[in-house]
Amino acid sequence: MVVGVLRVELILHAPQSLKEKRSIVQKIVGRCRSRFPISAAETGLHDLWQRSEIGFCMVAGDEAAIHTVFLRIQDEIARTGLAEVGDLHQEYLHF
What's this model's pTM, rounded to 2 decimal places? Predict the structure, then answer.
């Protein structure tokens, strides 16, 4: 069993308030949750209007399957046009 963790820093250009930022982040998190077998939540940078950190987690039988999904998540975020992917951090825990 492998647990994969992906932390993505998003750069948001449109929001003019924290309320608007939360709306955009929820759209991105909801879209990823509905399209991929993952858990996701906003995990950091809560007080900044134009940045956000989202954490994704997935469990699978091998690391390659998780890595493929993480690449598709990055593509999905870019495809929304709502945010730009900034810093990324991936970690895999093998059990």
Answer: 0.88
C-alpha–C-alpha distance, residues 83 and 77, integer Å: 7
Q: Which residues contact 2 (CB under 8 A, 6 or more apart)?
A: 59, 60, 61, 62, 63, 66, 92, 93, 94, 95
Reported as half-sphere exposure (CB side, CA atoms, 13 A), residue 6 has a value of: 24
Residue 61's contacts (CB-CB under 8 Å, 6 or more residues apart) are 1, 2
Neighbours of 54 (CB within 10 A): 23
Residues 47, 34: Cα–Cα separation, whole Å: 26
In tens, the pLDDT along 2-45 reads 999 999 999 998 888 889 999 999 999 999 999 999 999 999 99
Please tell me whether residue 93 adopts helix, strand or coil conformation.
strand
